[in-house]
Design brief:
Strand content: 25-35%
CATH topology of the largest domain: Rossmann fold
Largest sheet: 7 strands, parallel
Structural class: alpha/beta
Strand order of the largest sheet: 15-16-14-13-12-17-18
Number of domains: 3
Mean pLDDT: 81
Order of helices and strands: EEHEHEEEEEEEHEEHEHEHEHHEHEHE
CATH class of the largest domain: Alpha Beta
Distance between the termini: 27 Å
Number of strands: 18
Radius of gyration: 22 Å
Shape: globular
CATH architecture of the largest domain: 3-Layer(aba) Sandwich
CATH superfamily of the largest domain: Nucleotide-binding domain of ferredoxin-NADP reductase (FNR) module
Number of helices: 10
């Protein structure tokens, strides 16, 4: 039998194997929650007595763990616990300053920066609107920017995204920040490998902007994938960013037919891979020895030219700074010439792709401690 827990001073009995979040909900006690998978961190609570299981603190910031904070959705108590809602997470009143459509599916939502709110580029926040609706969104802007930039995917019937669509000047509550997916400004020479799908681009853009603002010297390879070219909703802006930053290369991955892909996104400048055309596969994946979508062996070795690639940039190798390819995102990434052992890696977006890439990149040499993941999950049903 599961031990009894006390929440806000009231005792509750949990069923065997039941999580704290589920047991309290069954007995009519509501804790803010969203994904119920341990990703969004909406359900953080604090133990005032007793020790929460280690599994319930995975992904929680170290400073919060030291205060006894844990995730109620991941906590199956193995001993007595006294729990309360955590006041360790900052809550700030702010306002929606601007809403801009980036595509038919994605909006750029800018918030006024609340007084006293601090964060690191790449972290995420939770927004709460009237009615108690809460959703997590990653920050694409950097500290010091005039506004907080979020990328919001529009969902048909979405109780938060559809509200945000018409929410300019409306008040909203911000909680956070959360997450360990941020830029390390003491590693200016380390290669950065960033990859994401959909609005998983937001934290990657935040990390990239922070790196450039810090004068990052190592190469930065940023990948954005979508099933359609229209899904690369910020490709023009990324190309402009790459043109001004010698160490930055941008790769777009689309899965639709190349002849369709070339008609969606406006071109800029001369024709060719640097101006938004779809380049054919280089075939590098077959020669790199890393895993590919076809299931080739992992870690079978790299081409000799990859050695020392950590210090090379697009400006020194003569390679285009912005490339769009009709190829799967994981195949493109695993063919990257950077030495994965030297890289700090950021993976964001589709949970399946994030977990698959995490495993393959780790097996290709990247240390686990330098792989940062931010899977974007749907709300629990």
């Amino acid at each position: 039998m599961s031990p009894r827990v006390h929440f806000a001073g009231t005792p509750y009995d949990l069923l065997p194997g039941e999580t704290l979040l589920g047991g309290l909900a069954r007995q009519g006690v509501s804790i803010p929650s969203f994904c119920r998978t341990g990703v969004c961190q909406t359900c953080i609570v604090r133990a005032t007595s007793g020790q929460p299981p280690r599994e319930s603190q995975v992904g929680v910031a170290g400073a919060l763990v030291q205060q006894g904070c844990f995730l109620a959705c991941q906590c199956v108590p193995d001993g007595p616990l006294e729990v309360e809602l955590s006041d360790a997470i900052g809550s700030f009143a702010t306002r929606v300053a601007r809403v801009e459509g980036l595509s038919h599916q994605v909006m750029r939502v800018e918030l006024e920066v609340p007084e006293g709110f601090t964060f690191r580029a790449g972290q995420f926040v939770q927004l709460e609107r009237e009615g108690g609706v809460t959703r997590p969104y990653s920050i694409a802007s950097i500290p010091g920017a005039k506004r907080l930039e979020l990328h919001v995917k529009l969902h048909s019937g979405g109780v938060m995204s559809q509200w945000l669509r018409w929410a300019e000047k409306q008040p909203i509550t911000l909680r956070g920040p959360f997450g360990e997916c941020f830029y390390f400004d003491n590693e200016l020479d380390r290669p950065l490998l960033l990859a994401g799908t959909g609005t998983g681009l937001a934290p990657l853009l935040g990390v990239t902007r922070a790196a450039l603002a810090a004068g990052h010297r190592g190469p930065i390879h940023l990948y954005h994938g979508s099933s359609t070219r229209a899904g690369l909703y910020l490709f023009d802006e990324l190309r402009t960013l790459a043109e001004a930053a010698p160490g930055l290369r941008v790769f777009g991955s689309v899965l639709e037919a190349p002849e369709e892909a070339t008609t969606t996104l406006p071109r800029r400048g001369a024709s060719g891979v640097g101006s938004g055309s779809v380049a054919p596969s280089s075939g590098k994946a077959a020669s790199s020895g890393r895993a590919t979508a076809a299931g080739k062996p992992i870690g079978a070795g790299k081409p000799a030219s990859a050695k020392g690639a950590a210090g090379a940039t697009a400006s020194t190798t003569g390679e285009p700074r912005c490339v769009l390819r009709h190829e799967t995102l994981d195949k493109l990434i695993l063919a990257d010439p950077l030495d994965f052992f030297q890289c700090r890696v950021y993976l964001c977006g589709d949970p399946g792709l994030v977990q698959r890439l995490r495993k393959r990149i780790y097996l290709s040499g990247a240390p686990q401690a330098r792989i940062h993941c931010d899977p974007f999950v749907a709300p629990a049903s």
